[in-house]
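Just curious. Invent one:
>
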Amino acid sequence: MSRYRWQAEPAPRQAALTDDLDLGFDQLAEAEEWLGAFHADLAQAGVERVTLWQDGAVLLGPMELDPATSQAGGPASDEKG
């Protein structure tokens, strides 16, 4: 069974996000879902780019996280303007 893991650069300033990154995911869809849900949080925590690893090999990335585009979507942007 494949194992998927996100690598963030630089490492996030929030321990909870670092813990999630270290856990990894059994399914590609789970890894993609997690990034979609926490994209804004990662950018706000100082992460500039992420890379998705599959069993020790790069699958995707590095992909830039743009804080300006992170405002649309994700749990950190639930505010109404």
